[in-house]
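Lab notebook: predicted structure, single chain.

Context: the supervisor wants predicted structures on file for every construct in the current expression panel, including those that have not yet been purified. This is the next one on the list. No modifications to the sequence; it matches the entry in the shared construct table.
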Amino acid sequence: MNREIKGRFVNGKVELLEESDLEEGEMVNIVVPFRKKEGDGKDIMATSGAWKDDVDCEELVRIIYENRSRGACLKEE
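Prediction complete. Output recorded below exactly as produced.
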């Protein structure tokens, strides 16, 4: 049965913050929950408009729908 034990990462090691019945040397799996870091998304937002004058979006959409209607797709070789 899985259980959750709180710990803190300090100097390259996980220190348990609560009592445990783990035996010395026992193997454990550590699951680290995702947490959004401050600044996420700023890099991608900086690229906004980068293709503005390089790509004809309407033509690209037309080509995509044309290929889909013909059943065309890209295949790895």
